[in-house]
Amino acid sequence: MAQEDVFKKIVSHCKEYGFVFPSSEIYDGLGAVYDYGQNGVELKNNIKQYWWQYMVLLHENIVGIDSAIFMHPTIWKASGHVDAFNDPLIDNKDSKKRYRADVLIEDQIAKYEEKVEKEVEKARKRFKENFDEEQYRATSPKVAELLAKRDALHERYQTVMNAEGGIDLEGMKQIIIDEEIVCPISGTRNWTDVRQFNLMFKTEMGAAAEGASTIYLRPETAQGIFVNYLNVQKTGRMKLPFGIAQIGKAFRNEIVARQFVFRMREFEQMEMQFFVKPGTELDWFKEWKERRMAWHQALGFGAENYRFHDHDKLAHYANAATDVEFHMPFGFKEVEGIHSRTNFDLSQHAKYSGKKIEYFDPETNERFTPYVIETSIGVDRMFLSVMCHSYEEEKLDNGETRTVLHLPAALAPVKLAVFPLTKKDGLPEKAREIINDLKFHFNCQYEEKDQIGKRYRRQDAIGTPYCVTVDHQTLEDNTVTLRHRDSMEQERVNIADLRSIIEDKVNISSLLKNLK
């Protein structure tokens, strides 16, 4: 099945089983805005808990805050967002659709890579067991031609992105013309010039229109951490190195919001700013790269599905930057950014606020502005990566197909579903008794409608790792049938043992224990 078809099925599955709904759907929706349903919010909250507990519980020198969405407008002047938070946009005159010019070019680079993979797959089918992939990649003229085109385009793209004085907008349009990139809607190459567009949402604060001041919905959560650096450092008596973590909503007026919840106008971030002594930042940058990759891989999705993408173009305030990319159905895509931001942010806020934002080192009697290592992960992108990897249409031995989410048990919305075999003979009451005992320890669900097989399938589809069936034998010996989602194996266990069997496996700590 084509990967785009798999992705469409995942999007459909998210709606059908209460994970993600189009926002305001009864009013025909709102572009690139989504609501998380009853199962989606549980999965999302579990992802956030996994991140928060890793950052704050496992690191003695990291604390958390929750800063306001509304912030003083000068903050965004100091951070550079007012003047420089722009995307290069281009319109197709025939379809009237607007696109990010840089994304069109990056997609073209990816297409060359996809063509290479298709050539490899064709050769694999042709030569079968005699196929030597490494040799083919090294000797195929077609592969060499495609890679040369990719590399030439990549080099040219970096040149226009790193042009003196900012992005070379004319050069960007020329690339689109030369590569014969067409509009996905109209199929034509009738493009406007490329221009810059600021991504921040504006609103007004004040009781009367004439006295209102313009403020912005925050486009990132990081600045709320930076402006609270002094408050946290002093009240917490924090010593370098230390970090401040935050989870919160951010807003960007994305013109090319796409790929479901991957790129939205309202989204959620998990960010940690780690303050260090100048001169040590690149060592800490390397350290946090390793820690963050280990956090991702502890989910058990396979190391081959992750990679680092080091930035060719660094922001003016950074001296190192990389992305953690995950293999989505539409290619390797960024889920987390790790950046060495130097002392830019604290220095800018000191300059614009007139306040000294420094650290006093009692060991050296020095005062200095700390450097910062940032780790920033998109909750929604993380949610999507978990859904994409977990979704499977599994062929069974009896010829049937079941749709199952192989979610890590600790992230699953429901940990245990309890079914009475029938609606009579005291079985529902016994099932309720089990739930009433276990619901204080993990999320349980009761279900009595339909045959047991159908109930199993519904729980498979939302990723429930364990199901318990209460039958007539239960009333005799207090045992139940415990069914495991992934293997579909069933075992007879005592009701008194259920908690000890399940709890440790579905707790967030089960994931954290995989980390050093």
From TrEMBL:
The organism's place on the tree of life at top rank: Bacteria
Class of enzymatic activity (EC top level): ligase
Keywords: Ligase
Keyword set includes Ligase: yes
EC number assigned by the record: 6.1.1.14
This protein's name: Glycine--tRNA ligase
Species of provenance: Palleniella muris
Lineage, top ranks: Bacteria, Pseudomonadati, Bacteroidota, Bacteroidia, Bacteroidales
